[in-house]
Every structure is written in structure tokens, then in C-alpha cells.
Amino acid sequence: MTSIVLGAGIAGVTTAYYLAMDGRAVTVLDRRPGVALETSFANAGLVAPGHSYTWASPRAPKILLKSLFVEGQALRLRLSADPHMWAWCALFLRNCTATRSRENTTRKVRLCRYAQDQLQQVTAREQLQYDGTRRGLLYLYRDAASFERGRANMSILVDNGLPLETLDAAQAVAREPALEHARDRIAGAIYCPTDESGDAYQFTRELQKVCERLGVRFMFDTPISRIETEGNAITGVRTPAGLIAGDDYVLALGSYSPILARPLGYRLAIYPVKGYSATFPAGREHRPPQIGGVDENHLVAWARFGARLRFTATAEFAGYDTRHTPSDFAPILQAARELFPDGADYTKPSYWAGLRPMTPEGTPLIGRTRHRNLFLNTGHGHMGWTMSCGTAKLLADIMAGRTPELGLTGMTIK
Fold first, then answer.
1. Pick from 4, 16, 22, 195: most CB atoms within 10 A?
2. What's the confidence (pLDDT) of residue 202?
3. The domain 68-102+130-197+271-358: what is its CATH number?
4. Where does the record place the FAD dependent oxidoreductase domain (predicted)?
């Protein structure tokens, strides 16, 4: 069997790996010159089942509305004439009920726990090195009210088997001594001892090498203009290199998946949500944190990768625009200096902005389509690094005719 994977991000490369492990001949296509140069290039780096909450919550509409009038919000809506954005927002708002929020979060945490187990198996089997740290993650709260909400919300994760601990400020600092300067700014924290972190870009590059040893062919600088069909089957993918054909095809193009799917009659509810990251050098003269985490009040995440310290923030509905200016990173720098004033050389930032392929529910789209040989592994949102090995394994099982090890309710197209 010959499989064509569309997209060389972390979802595409992990898919190629599992398909190759099944003995398939795999070709991966991507318009960029290498793997993981879109969403996974400089993301937060957190493998975080402990942060599996869906964005579509009862509080989200008020936050989005406020962002239209107040600058500096972590969740930002930029008014646009794009009908796809408004259609997505309508579906998002439908999911902002307490019942649906709990349902979607339950699906996310179950998928994330399964996926983390798969990631650890792949890492051990292939001896992958990607500045990984398995010391848990901290979720910090700046005031008593938000800390109490966090403690109340954690029950849904605990009910689904995730170990979580509540810490007061002193305990949080004891867990992460680099927070000493910020002790007075912390009301409390939730600690997930099984969460971890690592460089998703480095992981994907390492896994690419494994894939190539398994015979996977990567075709970079190969934009896809359209998908050719005949009846209910895909016959090939049109590129500048000609028609690339195989027995089956996997759409793993993240935010760009809906664009290629529309001419085939699919309306994938995926929309790009822009995020920002800043990475700083952290040498021996600095005191960076040893474990990653999230400042929940400002939704600023951090993770250390060897001699680098990265902060990420913001969820901005701005279409496919990845442009940025230094002023966009002001909230990140402020939070970084407040939490870890000696953590890195903040005068030498490396700035980046990327697009998260979000579904309204927060869960990805996996599995079969109406075309008998077209499959989906896309729409992972802000949890692509966490979910990648899990969704790839589930899809490989489906394509091989095996029963997936996890139910896919709410994660397939209708």
C-alpha cells in the first residue's frame, strides 16, 4: 500500500511514522522547505493533559466581546469580513455551554492521556532527543478568585484519571525555586506531576530521520494546488512536480486543511488562531525555571529547552496573518520578567507567530471521509504537540482495519 500524507507538520510526520511502521510506502508533501515549519516550529512545548480544558466555555463569549474594546486580552477577536471566521465563531458559541464544555474537555483529556503514552513509547523506542523534561507542569494563579475557579474546574480532569495537586504560594515556590521573586504575585498553583515539556520542532526533525530510515519519502517545496477525484475516490494530488498518486491519502495540513477540502465538498470547522512566542538564551549566569507551566491569569506559558527559555501567549482570531511586531510581545515580556526576572537574557529575543488549527470543540478531526481513500488527521488546535502521536496511532489503526484503542466520538466528520 502506498500512502500520501499531505503536510509535514508534527501531525503529518507522526502519521507517516505509524504508517511506515505498518509496512506502507509513504510519501509526505509540504510547501515548506522542511518539517514542522508552521504551528510546531516555536510553540509552547508543553505536553499537557493537565491543560486539556476546551476554550469554548461559558466564560469565553464575555472574554471575546471584551477583546473588541480592551487591548491586551489573552483571547482576541479581530473583526473581519471573512465568512469562514463568522461560521466558525457561531459553532464555537454553540459549544460555550457548561454541558458541552464538560463533554469536550472530557474527550480532550482522554485523548491527551492516550497520546502522551504513545509519545513516551515512541521516544523510548526510537531514542529521540528533544530537550524533553518529565518533571510535571505548574499552573499558576495570581489571585484567590481565579485559583478557586481553577480548583473547582480540576475535578473534570481528576475524574478522568489525571493526578493533580493544589499548592499554596510557598509550595509552588518550593516546587519551582526560580519563582522566588514572584512569591507575592502567586495566590496558588495546580501541579500536574505527569505533564512534561520538550521542543516539538526538534522532536519532529528527529522523527523525520527515523521515518527516512523506514523508507518514507519527503517532498519539500511542493505546494499542493488541488486534490483530484473520480467518483468517491481520490486519484492524485496536483503539484508543480506533477500528479502524485497513491492508494490512500491523509489530509494533515492544519489550518490549511479546510482550503484544500472545500473543492471536495467538505466544510471542515477549522479556523486559524494566531499565537505568539518569544525565545531567549538562558546561560549559566541566569536562573531559568526547571519545569514548564502556565500563568493562568495571563495565559502565558513557559518552558525551558536546554539553554533556551520560551514564553508563548495570546489566541488571536486574525485569519491567516502571521505578521508580528515587537509590541505584540509586550505582555509576554512583562510576564516573563515578573515571574523569572533572572531567567534569561530578555534583551535577545527570537520572536515568532504561528497559527493553531482550532475546531470549535477543541478536539481534532480524525478518520474516514466520504471519499473511500481520504483520511483526516487535522485540527489539533493548541494541543497538537500533546495529541500528535495519539491521533497518528489512532488513524493508522483505522487505515489498517484495526479497532482504535480510543473512542472517536465527537472527533469525526459527519
1. 16
2. 98
3. 3.30.9.10
4. 4-397
